[in-house]
Write a structure and sequence with these properties.
binds uridine-5'-diphosphate-xylopyranose, 14 strands, alpha/beta, six-stranded parallel β-sheet
């Protein structure tokens, strides 16, 4: 099939290379000409395992890039993957979605299907359909809209797209449904669960999934706050919870809370949507509140450990919102860094991939070239993002490098007993603090 993709951000670019890998011919557009030129020569604009290889494999073959929406005229299906950033009110800004759909429609042939892949609030497709009809009254029943929410996780995006746990397609017309089955035929043939719904259900499902995953994280973080007060162990509570099949073990890792381009933004957008629909979904605001408390709790531990923050050097290991990505959007690590800096501390950060974007986001952070450099003369080590390489940290050496022997492990990632043996006071999440005899 001939496919078009509008927007080469995280979702768009992964979508392009995946569809090319399925054997479709894909044309991707973006308004950023410089970005397209880089993609054409095989340069990826962000770090995502496996992406570069697939881009190299398909660029100038199954996958081509163009600045012009006109180039999408022959596409059977066009996927809108542009950003939907939050407005000040929390609602999603859908201007780019509307404008993209209008431009695509302006050049479209009959029976072009326009698909929302960006996360959009329920009701967006109805509005888009109106835009298409207004733009192309000549193709009134020959342009249609479908919803195909993306569930990929950053850092595992290629794997999630090539081997998704399920595919969700919302469509209201027979030809749109048939078209979408054609797009996903290679996966349907492999037995991947393919769920067809009406459009409103698909749109709402995406927000419902993200909010539920965020709920699980906030639930275990709230339990961590209780464990800290009760002297209980949140890791064991999570194990007990997870061993109940009805609850399941995933997304019960207590830590510094969730960040990233989806959960924080989607929660707020879902809240606004619910209110617009006349339902006050207070639970969503509680999820966000508990998420903020995770950063407060880490800050309180650092303060407890080093006493006055003024003039203290805090080594922060991990700056991205989670390991495996250089994305720092809504990163809880950076939120913690900001709060530490506001209180007079110096934050020296190190991240295997996200140092540069972190510095751009919070210029006051001092960036170190290695974990060891960050630790030198620091009064506290904060493990903020659990990159696998931090597990190999030489704690005895760290102890020698640091001014104070304190670790705040905001992800329960290091071995607390080892830290204690190396002479550290170790503050985990939702478990008792370990301290040498004082
Ligand atoms: C998420 C959804 O998983 C994905 O389906 C959707 O399409 C986009 O949003 P992503 O933002 O890439 O994907 O990251 P994810 O792996 O889900 O983690 C989100 C955040 O939650 C991270 O900050 C992570 O550190 C945190 N998290 C996750 C926890 O704190 N505890 C957990 O148990 C799981």
């Amino acid at each position: 099939m001939q496919l078009g993709v509008v927007g080469t951000g995280h979702v768009g670019l992964v979508t392009c290379v995946t569809f090319a890998e399925f054997g479709h011919d894909v044309i991707a557009t973006d308004e950023d000409q410089a970005k397209l030129e880089k993609l054409e020569v095989g340069d990826t604009p962000f770090f995502e395992p496996g992406l570069s290889e697939l881009l190299q494999k398909h660029r100038n073959g199954k996958l081509t890039f163009s600045h012009e929406k006109r180039s999408l005229t022959d596409a059977d299906v066009v996927f809108i993957c542009v950003g939907t950033p939050p407005r000040a009110s929390g609602e999603a800004n859908l201007a780019a979605v509307e404008n993209s759909a209008r431009e695509v429609a302006g050049h479209a042939k009959a029976k072009t299907l326009i698909v929302e892949k960006s996360t959009v609030p329920a009701g967006t497709a109805t509005r888009l359909r109106r835009v298409l009809r207004h733009e192309r009254p000549d193709l009134r029943d020959d342009l249609d809209v479908a919803s195909n929410p993306e569930f990929l996780r950053e850092g595992a995006a290629i794997e999630d797209s090539l081997r998704p746990s399920r595919i969700l397609v919302g469509a209201d017309s027979g030809w749109a449904r048939e078209r979408m089955r054609g797009v996903y035929e290679p996966l349907i043939d492999k037995g991947v669960e393919y769920i067809e719904t009406d459009i409103a259900t698909a749109e709402l499902s995406k927000h419902a999934c993200n909010a539920f995953l965020a709920l699980k994280i906030s639930y275990i973080n709230a339990i961590a706050r209780l464990c800290e007060r009760a002297g209980a162990d949140v890791e064991m509570v999570a194990k007990v919870l997870g061993s109940d099949e009805r609850i399941g073990p995933h997304f019960l890792k207590a830590g510094l809370g969730f960040g990233g381009s989806c959960f924080p933004k989607d929660l707020r957008a879902f809240d606004v949507l619910a209110r617009e629909l006349g339902y006050d979904f207070t639970l969503l605001r509680d999820i966000a509140k508990v998420n903020d408390e995770a950063v407060d709790a880490a800050l309180a531990k650092v303060s407890d450990a080093v006493w006055n923050l003024d003039g203290k050097r805090i080594a922060m290991l991990g700056l991205s919102f989670k390991p495996g990505t250089d994305d720092v959007r809504f990163s809880p690590a950076l939120e913690l860094a900001r709060r530490l800096i506001e209180r007079g501390a110096t934050v020296v950060g190190y991240d295997p991939h996200a140092s540069e974007p972190a510095q751009a986001e919070v210029p006051e952070i001092e960036i170190a070239a290695s974990a060891e450099d960050a630790l030198a003369e620091s009064h506290c080590l904060v493990l903020a993002t659990e990159w696998p390489e931090f597990r190999a940290l030489d704690l005895a050496k760290a102890r020698e490098l640091m001014a104070y022997p304190v670790i705040v492990d905001a992800r329960n990632f290091l071995d607390g007993r080892e830290a204690l043996q190396a002479g550290f006071t170790y503050y985990p999440v939702g478990r008792p603090r370990l301290a040498p005899d004082e």
